Amino acid sequence: MENKIKIEIKNLNFSYDEEKYVLKNINLKIYENETVCIIGENGSGKTTLLLCIAGLLKYEGEVKIDGEIFNENLRKKMGFLFENPDDALFMPRVFDDIAFGPKNFGFEEERIKEIVKESLEKVGLPGFEERVPHHLSFGEKKRIALASIISYSPEILLLDEPTLALSPVSKENFLKLIKSIRATKIIATHDLEVAVETGDRVVLLNKGTIKKVWNKSEVKSIKYLKNFLLKEPGER
Amino acid sequence: MKHHFIDDFAYKKGFLQRVDTGLKVILLILLLLCVLVIPEKVLFYIPFIILTFLFLIFSKIPFIYFLKRILIIFPFLLVLFSLSIFKENGLRIFLFSFLKSLISISFVFLFVMTTKMTALSEFIKKLPAGFLISDIFSFLYRYFFLLQDEFEKMKRAMISKGKNPKLKDYALLSGNLFIRSYERSERVLKAMISRGWKIK
Amino acid sequence: MHIPDGFLDLKTVSATNVFSIGFLFYSIKKITKKLNPERIPLLGLSCAFIFTLEVISFPLPGGTTVHLSGAFFISLILGPFSGFFITFISLFVQALILGHGGILTIGANSLNIAFTGCVMGYYFYKFFEELFPSFKTMWIFIISFLTLITGSLLLLIELTISGKILFSKSLFPVLFAHTIAGIIEGIFTVSAISFLQRVKPEILKTQKI
User: Fold this and answer.
1) What is the CA radius of gyration of chain A?
2) Within-domain flag for A197
3) Segments of chain B scoring below 70 in pLDDT
4) Measured between CA atoms, how close is A104 to chain B, in angstroms?
5) pLDDT tens for each residue of A165-212
6) Which of B117, B184, B195 shows the shortest C-beta gap to A104?
7) Inter-chain residue contact C55 with B148, CB threshold 8 Å
8) How far apart (Å, rounded) are the C-alpha atoms in residues C139 and C122?
């Protein structure tokens, strides 16, 4: 399963202004259908890394997806779930939000209606087409945001803090949902439970550099991760 | 926070709800123009008032709710009232303007309450240069409740810290709200681009 | 102050609408000429912001409330045409869903509020800022104040032409009310702009169209 390299990151550097680097010398290979969890403190560069992979920021270095350097055609292969669903649901109606991606990627009108229906069923909110995003609960918004991405069946899912601010029950359901989608997944989170439960590999990012990479077998429990983080010098 | 969406009644099944949006827009403008030019005789106003009631009944909008919504124009009317009484025959002129105003706003609210905002946005898109207007209109409809909520939360936070907001504080809150809107626009742009959006 | 439908006569309505809607299309042309992708969500969110600002009313000593216009403020950030465009839409939607102002009077209202605030205000500010660059804050205050006064004078003229009021008798009370509103708007604009300058100065460097 884990033979084909899906994403290859080489010497990635990123800075907002010339002096301070948010990401320094990132090297990482991600295999097809693998789930990689990126953990780290606030401001360690998790979101920035995801944005770089998605081609939403200009960076130094190289990110290759299926062997290709970033270009506009690759957008269709990637789905980005933003931390705050209110940023991702910018249309007045749920239908338009989910249809937004497929429309831009040139799907046929008739097919789009079916896709929206299917996507809503997949996230467990059938019949929400005509709803207004502002009226939905946070958990529902999060699911709709996910539906708006899976509507064009991307091969890579970039999930930024997918479980943040969800109630324990919604979190459980949302994780199940994410696990059920077949794709290469990169999850940025500071929830160690998410990392342990979903990650095939766990990457620790600290101040913009990769400190450690664990395989699934090495990450035994949340406690193990927690202890490691507490001991890690310079972490706090 | 609870908000009333004005197009709540658009999802009911009534007479005006079934009429095509474009037709309704034309009808609305024609009716408003009629109200604008009718002479100042009470007789001319009666058909319009009857029409309003008919529309209300057939579109299943509760009368009391409707009345509450149109009362909103009264503060301005009070100002105009106090200005117009200086004029000769001022009271008469005011009363007829008031009647025109009341009928006009009834028609506007009848239109808005029976039209889905998304349908209106679709309609605007077909007008000349409509794509930009309809995009901005959609954003406005999507985010203004959110911004109002954000403003209220910031105000509450300020009050809870023991500061009753004064004019300057309102300016700071508003400045803050603008920064948040600006940053949100950057994130929304990323969300749009990541889903394949390009400028036409 | 937004004029509701019914208080302007046909000739005033026609003249103001021809002017404002004409200017709206001119603005759209200017905006779309060099439209960057980031401009569309920015205009959308700014429009929601202006709408929110005009909806929130805040208390004055003595029990009355006042609401801000923000038209000059937004044109200082986004430029005159973008400012006019989004203020127009905000006014239109206010008339539509809140009943502040009217549909046929949108031309008059956008002339009084959006045109004076955004276009007149912006160019006056640019002119005086270049002439006396060291008094920026003062110019922001004065022009903020003047846009409201100009707006109120236009309002009086429109109502007088429509035969609803006597200009001479209404001048003093309306000017008095707008002097207070103008001072408030001035203080607001100065504080909000200086807040942005302090906290996130790059916002003030946004492209101005």
Assistant:
1) 18
2) yes
3) 1-8, 73, 200
4) 5
5) 888 888 888 888 888 888 899 999 888 888 888 888 888 888 888 888
6) B195
7) yes
8) 11
Judge whether B5 is closer than 8 Å to chain A, CB to CB: yes
The Cα of C83 is separated from the nearest Cα of chain B by a number of Å equal to 13
- C93 lies in some domain: yes
* Structural domains of chain C, count: 1
B151: nearest CB among C32, C56, C100: C56
| Angle formed at CA C47 by CA A164 and CA B152, multiple of 5 degrees | 50
Contacts of B191 in chain A (CB under 8 A): 80, 82, 87-88, 90
Is there a contact between C7 and C164 (Cβ–Cβ < 8 Å)? yes
> First vs last Cα of chain B: how many Å apart?
36
Q: Does A78 touch chain B (CB under 8 A)?
A: yes
Block residue for tokens 């939905």: A136
Could you read off the pLDDT of C64-78 as tens digits, one per residue?
A: 667 788 899 999 999
The structure tokens listed for B173 are 């809150």
> Beta strand pairing status for A60-65 and A5-15?
antiparallel
Nearest 5 degrees, angle CA C36-CA C42-CA C48?
Answer: 150
Q: Which of C3, C5, C188 to mutate to test the interface with B (most CBs of B within 10 A)?
A: C5
> Is the CB of residue B57 less than 8 Å away from at least one CB of chain A?
no
Minimal CA separation from B94 to chain A, in Å = 40
CATH number of residue C107's parent domain: 1.10.1760.20
As a residue count, chain C comes to 209
Q: Which residues contact C134 (CB under 8 A, 6 or more apart)?
A: none
- Inter-residue contact C66 to C57 (CB < 8 Å): yes
CA distance C209 to C204: 13
| Dist. CA C150–CA C146, nearest whole Å | 6
> In this structure, what are the phi and psi dihedrals at residue A234, rounded to the nearest 5 degrees?
75, 10
Question: Is A132 close to B5, i.e. CB distance below 8 A?
Answer: yes
Q: Is residue A211 part of a domain?
A: yes
Give just the sign of the alpha carbon dihedral A50, A51, A57, A63: positive
pLDDT bucket at A233, cuts 50 / 70 / 90: low
Q: How many CB atoms lie within 10 A of CB A232?
A: 14
Residue A110 near chain B (CB below 8 Å):
no
CATH label of the domain that carries residue A50: 3.40.50.300
Rounded to whole angstroms, how far apart are CA atoms A79 and A88?
A: 11
Core vs surface per residue A80-111: b (16+ CB within 10 A) or e: bbbbbbbbbbbbbbbbbbbbbbbbbbebeeee
Rounded CA gap, A115 and A121, in Å?
10
In terms of residue numbers, what domain contains A207?
5-90+157-231
Minimum mean pLDDT range among A219-233, C7-21, C94-108? A219-233
Query: ipTM > 0.85?
Result: yes
Residue C144 predicted with pLDDT over 80:
yes
Q: Which domain holds residue C197?
A: 10-205
Number of separate domains in chain A: 1
